[in-house]
């Protein structure tokens, strides 16, 4: 059975942003330009401080001295500037640095965080230090600052850690205390139900939301549609489709067709799946963007439609839409689904030859996984060598972790341990480790009497801030299941 392709939230959001950009005021006069240069915006100032923070290797353990030095130089540090930096740090996945800025604000005593700032901080704490620390922070927030935004961040933490009862209680509190009726938090809880396979609860909540008269958006309906698709409930899926097609608030896009087609694929109705893909292709014929092409490649590959995959690929290249590595990744993935591994490698080489494209680690990582799954460790190692040549010491922990998993699955455990060690050293504080690989390596080392080596790896993980909530307990659980 083909695997359901869950649409990327980031790609959906990008589509909305691109389709609803606010108009911008353009300054054409030289006078206006000179005024802008004389009075830089908070974002411009924030960018300068951000680059200084990221460039100071000696202060990587603490960025407070960098901000202090900035202040001593007489430079402005307003809350709006720091918010801009926090936003960039979150975007580039430096949560601990963002939290250090919040700590600096606390120490300054001169800046007051808004409920929105507190909500962001709570979300960062949960994802970086775990749920217990996030709850402790929440309980220390003054009651007058516990707004719906803050409760929304707490709800997001509970959803992230799959705490159903606490998530339900938090959403109910938001409804009782604030009369909360925005569909975004209901969608969050529905996503949690979907992940846990609690489809009855999901559909009951969706029905309650509709009865409350809440205006729902496409993300809400996509979550419902995806739940029907995952459960192979074609009747429910088609019933919701009829509602969506007449809802003036819902703009049908590529994600809708993707969920629908994959639902039919999971249910084994390949005729209706193909019909959905053809409808998708027809609906986007006049205006098809990169995401549309990527979804079409994936869907046709899932249906085994080799000729259609190559047809879409040639069109993709011919119309000038293939401008980023995402398209190459989509084609490489499609070819792997079709079992055309030689062709997959040729497309990867074609991508490498495009020097104008930004290096995208997702493609080498995908190739490593693909080669390892087929037992082609030599080819996977060759990909890693190319990454090392390109990135040097900046090779991420995810790349080494994938190689380590490949070694472990192919019973080359000494190499797996070495790759795991490199993964630990290369992973940023707050980053994720492959717990199954870690458990496999620890169990192997202990079976060989190498307890000190196993202990060194675990201690290093803790020193580098990679041990998340209940780390020891979770590791032991993984080891027991091996």
TrEMBL record:
The keyword Aminoacyl-tRNA synthetase does not apply. It holds the Pfam family PPR. It comes from the Eukaryota. Keywords: Repeat. One of its GO terms (molecular function) is mRNA binding. GO terms for cellular component: mitochondrion. PANTHER family: OS10G0501000 PROTEIN, OS12G0527900 PROTEIN. Belongs to the PPR family. P subfamily. This is Pentatricopeptide repeat-containing protein. It comes from Cuscuta europaea.
